[in-house]
Amino acid sequence: MKAVCWMGKESIEVHDVADPQIINPRDAIIKVTRTAICGSDLHLYGGLIPTMESGDILGHEFMGIVEEVGRGVKNLKRGDRVVIPFTIACGNCLFCKGDLWSLCDNTNPNAHIAETMYGYSGSALFGYSHIYGGYAGGQAQYVRVPFADVGPLKIENDLPDDKVLFLSDIFPTGYQGAVNANIKPGDTVSVWGCGPVGLFAIASAYMLGAGKVIAIDRFPERLALARKVGAITIDYSKDDVSIIEALRDLSGGVGPDSCIDCVGIEAHSHSAAGLYDKVKQTLKLETDRPFVLRQAIQAIRKGGTLSIPGVYGGVLDKVNFGAAFGKGIHMAMGQTHMHKLLKPLLAHVEAGDIDPSFLISHIVGIDQAPDMYAKWQKKEDGVTKIVIDPWQSTINPTTDGRIFPTTTRTLVP
Description:
By secondary structure, this protein is α/β, with parallel strands linked by helices. It has 13 helices and 18 strands. It has helices at 41-45, 94-97, 111-118, 161-164, 170-180, 196-207, 220-229, 243-249, 272-282, 291-299, 321-326, 338-350, 369-377, and strands at residues 2-8, 11-16, 28-37, 56-57, 61-69, 81-84, 87-88, 124-125, 142-145, 153-154, 188-192, 212-217, 232-235, 258-261, 305-308, 330-333, 362-365, 386-389.
């Protein structure tokens, strides 16, 4: 089969590899019909997540058709259409039973690596380094899904793949980011980063009753989509913009009730602090660039809630934790507890409350995937979200995958 493989920093190739096989009774083999490149895949592309190995198959956002199941899988059969959550959970441990699915104790065969770095291991992830289990990802024609009796969500409607694919990660991740922000009716919420997770966080904030959402980014295509979702936007790249002052002005002088950091490890800034982070990360004196986190702690009102769905990988420098303590803010973060969110969010899609495909800018074949990684990292061609058909070599070749201007899409059908 064909698969998108990580070959080293900023090196992605499509290879012919062996088809996956059933290894354990709780496995299933899925024929992938749609997959996508996630913004967090760019952290792998940029070499920022350790323990990747040459030849690793990428991809944690995917869906498809059940091809084969192990003898322990009784809830699925060949031909079922399923969306696969990016976190892998056993369903039986203390954390799974407590609805903390992304903290599963039993699915990461490389837990000792994570324990060395973090003290404990969370759940394994598809296609996301050997810290998180070394499982092959779904940017391929077939994928092995472990613990298939627990994770896959059956799609028993005729909605097209593009409308349900993002239940595999970015819609639930943005939604959990908004839930963790403790939003009350009428609250003012600020969201850093208008990539896919940020856009779903904005939409989810309104679903949870926010009165005003302020979105911060620098790319026109992302800011346009944020306005379409209903946000007031701030372009932080403008020379005369102070984010802290702008957020105070837009929140009655007290700061936002809730702040959501959807950026994480690769925050960007032209300021001296941003350049300082860039240099330290390049010299491997710092793993993450926490510029947005510093800014959010500074901006949030006293007693507010800071939610962090953006991915952080390691050690942070010069984060004003004294400010967070002094203001008495609440903080919530972590991987998405996918398994408890899939069915409720599918119900929203089925009811027509939201069309998650609104942010797709490019649909490509599998052989175009390496170029799309490079293009998205460089923020070229107005990329907002890339979907891959693994059974087509090339799609939309005359437009390099671009389907049509994203501003023509709508959030609600």
